[in-house]
């Protein structure tokens, strides 16, 4: 591989404190094809990046996701590496990200921050949130990924081209991970270092608001991959509620008090909950059939070629 075959994509929003050094570091590693997609920074990020020799494109909309989607459409190089502009990732670790791709083992590589992060790189809330989100993701998509929210990732161009992305905000990493799993890409994780953000700049991520959005993205997109999980969660909530009111009704009844309306409500809750499970089973069935059909079409197409 020629280093010019790699495009390094850096989304930035007010990262003047770190962007210059980051571009220098990537150049030092031998990569000079650097695309900065900037969210109209007010602190001169774009000018610094340009002065360091990066190609700077202003994003047309808002949010990290919109920036990434726009930039993906511009890249023609066979390999893409995505990195945040806040100096939390090390340019020299690019080689370990590219390795599985260059050796033909992976289509997409995620830099896993959670095994080797510096003190202070994650707040307690972020760390717990990350673990919960990864656990939730792994159950929903039946995979074993450790750090789906990482901002340091490598792709082949085919992998990028295959992704159907719509999320404009910080849900973009989640959506990328979901799409790679749905498109049956070979995804590998490699451990990377994660440094604290420079004190001179601030994070744009709101742990509660964005964490909630990321959780709902995982859940919402799971409908198409693991419907039993999707409907099962709704069903379980209703059945639990039914068991709760039901226990109350029975205990009171043993004391000689009858709650007619609450009994009706209990039955409705449990019937609705069970029905969700039936939806789940049926959807699973439809999805399996759909996958078999797709597989067949793929094989037929292959035979024709
Ligand atoms: N172009 C662009 N970049 C953004 C936007 N929001 C965040 N970024 C960049 O995305 C990267 C990750 O954001 P950051 O605030 O560090 O989030 P965190 O690493 O998840 O805490 C940084 O390089 C930000 O400058 C945006 O709206 N537009
Ligand atoms: Mg960051």
From TrEMBL:
The keyword Acetylation does not apply. CDD domains: DPM_DPG-synthase_like (cd04179). Its EC number is 2.4.1.-. Residues 7-128 form the Glycosyltransferase 2-like domain. One of its GO terms (molecular function) is glycosyltransferase activity. InterPro entries: GCTrfase_AglJ (IPR026456), Glyco_trans_2-like (IPR001173), Glycosyltransferase_2 (IPR050256), Nucleotide-diphossugar_trans (IPR029044). Keywords: Glycosyltransferase, Membrane, Transferase, Transmembrane, Transmembrane helix. The chain crosses the membrane at residues 228-251, 257-282. It is an enzyme of class 2 (transferase). NCBIfam families: glyco_TIGR04182. This is S-layer glycoprotein N-glycosyltransferase AglJ. The lineage of its organism: Archaea, Methanobacteriati, Methanobacteriota, Stenosarchaea group, Methanomicrobia.
């Amino acid at each position: 591989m020629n280093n010019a075959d790699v495009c390094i994509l850096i989304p930035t929003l007010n990262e003047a404190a770190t962007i210059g050094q980051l571009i220098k570091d990537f150049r030092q590693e031998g990569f000079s094809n650097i695309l900065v997609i900037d969210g109209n920074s007010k602190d001169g990020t774009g000018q610094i990046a340009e002065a360091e020799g990066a190609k700077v494109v202003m994003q047309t909309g808002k949010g990290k996701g919109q920036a990434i989607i726009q930039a993906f459409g511009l890249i023609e190089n066979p390999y893409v590496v995505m990195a945040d502009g806040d100096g939390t990732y090390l340019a020299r670790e690019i080689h370990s990200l590219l390795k599985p791709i260059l050796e033909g083992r992976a289509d997409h590589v995620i830099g896993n921050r959670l095994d080797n992060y510096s003190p202070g790189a994650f707040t307690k809330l972020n760390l717990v949130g990350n673990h919960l989100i990864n656990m939730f993701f792994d159950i929903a998509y039946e995979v074993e990924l450790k750090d789906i929210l990482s901002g340091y990732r490598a792709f082949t161009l085919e992998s990028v081209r295959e992704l159907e992305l719509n999320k404009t905000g910080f849900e973009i990493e989640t959506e990328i991970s979901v799409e790679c799993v749905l498109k049956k890409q070979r995804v590998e994780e490699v451990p990377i270092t994660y440094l604290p953000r420079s004190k001179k700049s601030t994070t744009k991520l709101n742990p509660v608001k964005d964490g909630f959005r990321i959780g709902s993205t995982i859940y919402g997109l799971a409908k198409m991959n693991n419907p039993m999980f999707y409907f099962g969660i709704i069903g379980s909530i209703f059945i639990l509620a039914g068991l709760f009111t039901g226990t109350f009704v029975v205990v009171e009844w043993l004391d000689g008090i009858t709650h007619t309306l609450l009994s009706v409500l209990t039955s409705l809750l449990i019937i609705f909950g069970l029905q969700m499970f039936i939806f789940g089973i049926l959807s699973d069935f439809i999805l399996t059939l759909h996958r078999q059909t797709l597989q067949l079409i793929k094989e037929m197409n292959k035979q024709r070629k």
